[in-house]
Amino acid sequence: MNEEGSVLKEAMDNLKEAARLVRATQNRLWSAGKSDHPDYRELTYRVNSALAMIEAAYVEARRRSE
User: Do the Cβ atoms of 58 and 18 come closer than 8 Å?
Assistant: First the structure.
């Protein structure tokens, strides 16, 4: 595997882990009933946005590795 391929593989591994952790946070907010709570609205929005960006970055890294 060339250097670019190893960088992309590492990036994809890190993005998978990041998505797992952000999903865990998202699920914790939901299970605690905080996702609709006014005091947690901004945090919930940012967690959802972060997950979308992580997923988009993963797709882009995978596309480049092919």
Answer: no
